[in-house]
Write a structure and sequence with these properties.
seven-stranded antiparallel β-sheet; 4 helices; Pnp Oxidase, Chain A; 7 strands; alpha+beta
Length: about 140
């Protein structure tokens, strides 16, 4: 296990993380508390509403930071669109957040409209010595 994977393993059971992002117009930093999912060296950050400010901001200003418990990770966001990856996110979401199950059951999976569901993928960047957010997954 590399350093990022070990750090993520230590905080994977936390319920929420703090995502720091920059305003797409102002450039000012903002912080939002959201659910997250860890899969080895990857973190997924989800929302069911792509109209939220933070989802719009990270699509324009890709530099972000995640704080999970005592750990902080800096990185860059990018859009992920792979359906098989979204299926894995749904599996992880069902396992960690039982409150999401009724919505996922009703929809069978997050709705395909970008305004309805999103997941932000976060990966390690060993060359930076930090971890990085890989960005908005729209199913």
């Amino acid at each position: 296990m590399d350093g990022v994977t070990e750090r993520l393993a230590r905080v994977a059971t936390h319920r929420t993380c703090q995502l720091t992002h920059r305003g797409r117009k102002s450039g000012r930093p903002f912080e939002v508390t959201i659910w997250f999912l860890v899969d080895t060296d990857t973190v997924y950050v989800t929302t069911m509403n792509m109209r939220r400010q933070w989802t719009q901001n990270v699509q324009v200003n890709r530099d972000v930071a995640l704080r999970i418990g005592p750990e902080t990770f800096a990185g860059e966001a990018r859009l992920v669109t792979e359906p098989s990856e979204m299926a894995e996110v749904v599996r992880l979401l069902k396992a960690k957040y039982w409150l999401a199950r009724p919505y996922l059951w009703l929809k069978a999976q997050p709705a395909p409209e970008p305004a309805a569901a999103s997941c932000h993928k976060w990966l390690s960047h060993p060359d930076r010595g930090t971890a990085a957010t890989r960005e908005s997954v729209s199913p």
